[in-house]
Design brief:
Elements: H1 2-19, E1 21-22, H2 23-30, H3 34-55, H4 57-68, H5 72-100, H6 102-120, H7 126-154, H8 160-185, E2 192-193, E3 198-199, H9 201-220, H10 227-232, H11 236-251, E4 263-264, H12 276-284, H13 293-313, H14 317-325, H15 334-344, H16 358-380, H17 382-385, H18 387-404, H19 411-419, H20 428-438, H21 441-472, H22 474-491, H23 500-507
Parallel strand pairs: 1-4
Antiparallel strand pairs: 2-3
Helix pairs in contact: 2-11, 3-7, 3-8, 3-9, 4-9, 5-6, 5-7, 5-12, 5-21, 6-7, 6-9, 7-8, 7-20, 7-21, 8-9, 8-16, 8-20, 13-20, 13-21, 13-22, 14-16, 14-19, 18-20, 18-22, 20-21, 21-22
Main location: membrane
Membrane topology: Multi-pass membrane protein
Organism: Papilio xuthus (Asian swallowtail butterfly)
């Protein structure tokens, strides 16, 4: 009797599993609507904040050099600080994201980053300023990478590529915000004496940049957890409740109308929370063994090339533009103008001047807004172009632009080629989209965080190398970055082919 009862229960469970839907199909049924989109926008704000903070250094540091007594060498170090912090903390943040959840990790890290950035605005000297910036940098790794994974897990499979690409374009928009905020704030002339320091426009600008982290964190407190994270932790009821809510908001129907009643998963489910080092080993070791090793190596190399240029070389753009556009550059290349300026100012140690030319703000603002518009248009057609083609084309084109900087003698062409660097951000989305496809849920957060960590090493490398080379061997600087970027573009041909067939199969799976 008991044996028959157990057989019956087993048959019921097996039948229930057979009729259960995959999470990808369940997301497809829930659809894409305002519910998904609004939280994708919130997650995009984390990415914007994470790009505004380090890129903002290119305006904050020149404007604060007199108040903080910052030398050029210290400026190069401070420009690297955000990326050093990201490199040091990508591993533990990847662990927390995969074991404690995407939502809570994002909220806590962003609140901490925002608070430390706000505190840095009130620091009286270089050391205290650098300490606050370093503490904020320790928190940036999470909002700089995790939103890509989160967004990829929050939308139906067939919309994933275009959603990540559009989100990536919005991050590029963050680069446009930097000069616009700077143009609005830095020309203001006010001084408030607090004794130990004077509160000047650059301090207000620092607060504006840091506030984006806090705003994003507060908005996400009302948002959902990743359904893929929930199901990977065995929290199937919570996953179904989230899918019903998503269906209700997107379709304007009752949650009870959601047709899917149970879920199945082929992902690794682990409810217990292992020890820190045990979990790190479980999550990271498989990434450095077949079949994931080759993809980790490829993703990391491409990220290194992208970030060394977009974050390393890019941080010096306002300074280089300022020198070239205010110099006597008629009929000569940008590097020749820089050499002339170095010779003419070698013995000029006059009164400290921390002003930036208005033309620098104007050109950077126009160029970054234009790059953002181009990025949004291109990313909106990623389904037609294909993420692999987009990845390859962007790297090859921007790499060619870097090389052509050494050739052109017209200021307008120089400004266009140099200011086009933010478009390279379009390549980040496709690489992360591949990560979402290639790596399983329980390894995905760590895979993205680690590959992005290697990318941030490229940022540290690029910022310091560009700073050292621009004055010493200017032409070699642009040949180096352009050539390395084109090499990464060629490596991108090794990325997997289209997933359209798999996507179609997933969508048409029956209950």
């Amino acid at each position: 009797m008991n044996g028959n009862q157990f057989d019956t229960v087993s048959e019921i469970v097996e039948k229930k599993n057979e009729n259960a839907a995959t999470l990808d199909h369940a997301l497809h049924v829930a659809g894409l609507g305002w519910y998904n989109i609004k939280y994708c926008l919130v997650l995009a704000l984390f990415l914007v904040a994470a790009i505004v903070e380090p890129v903002g250094y290119s305006y904050i540091l020149p404007s604060s050099k007199c108040d903080l007594n910052i030398t050029d060498g210290q400026r190069g170090f401070l420009a690297s600080v955000p990326y050093i912090g990201i490199v040091l903390t990508s591993f533990p943040w990847g662990y927390l994201v995969d074991t404690r959840g995407r939502k809570m990790s994002l909220i806590l890290s962003s609140l901490a980053a925002g608070v430390f950035v706000l505190l840095s605005a009130f620091m009286p000297d270089f050391i205290s300023f650098a300490v606050c910036k370093f503490l904020s940098a320790l928190c940036i790794a999470c909002p700089a990478a995790v939103p890509y994974t989160f967004i990829g897990e929050l939308v139906p499979l067939k919309y994933r590529d275009i959603t990540l690409s559009v989100t990536n374009a919005m991050q590029i928009l963050g680069s446009a915000i930097v000069p616009l905020f700077g143009w609005a704030i830095l020309p203001l002339e006010f001084r408030v004496d607090f004794g130990a320091y004077e509160f000047r426009p650059w301090r207000l600008l620092t607060m504006m940049y840091g506030s984006l982290f806090i705003i994003a964190a507060l908005l996400l407190t009302c948002g959902p957890e990743s359904p893929k994270y929930l199901i990977s932790q065995g929290r199937f009821d919570e996953t179904l409740d989230l899918l019903r809510l998503m269906y209700s908001k997107n379709k304007k129907k009752s949650p009870d109308d959601y047709p899917i009643k149970s879920l199945k998963t082929d992902e690794f489910v682990k409810k217990e929370k292992p020890a820190f080092f045990t979990s790190l080993k479980v999550q990271s070791v498989p990434l450095f063994k077949p079949p994931f090793l080759k993809w980790m190596a490829l993703n990391s190399t491409i990220f290194f090339g992208i970030f060394s240029t977009i974050n390393g070389l890019n941080v010096w753009i306002p300074d280089v533009l300022n020198r070239v556009l205010t110099g006597d550059g008629e009929g000569v290349t940008a590097c020749e103008v820089i050499a002339q300026r170095l010779n003419s100012t070698a013995d000029d140690f006059a009164e400290c001047d921390d002003t930036l030319d208005t033309m620098t703000f104007l050109i950077n603002s126009v160029a970054n807004v234009t790059c953002a518009v181009i990025a949004i248009v291109v990313s909106s057609t990623v389904k037609i172009i294909g993420k692999k083609n987009l990845l390859i084309a962007v790297q090859l084109i921007i790499g060619l632009f870097c090389i052509l900087i050494n050739v052109v003698t017209q200021d307008i062409l120089f400004a266009i080629f140099l200011s086009a660097l933010p478009v390279l951000g379009l390549a980040i989305g496709p690489v992360n989209a591949y990560a979402v496809e290639i790596f399983p849920t329980h390894l995905r957060g760590m895979a993205v965080s680690l590959s992005m960590m290697i990318g941030r090493v490229g940022s540290v490398f690029g910022a310091n190398v560009a700073g050292a080379m621009l004055n010493a061997v200017c032409e070699a600087t642009f040949y180096f970055f352009g050539g390395f970027l084109m090499f990464c573009g060629l490596l991108s041909f090794l990325m997997p082919g289209s997933k359209k067939k798999q996507t179609k199969e997933a969508i048409t799976t029956k209950l």
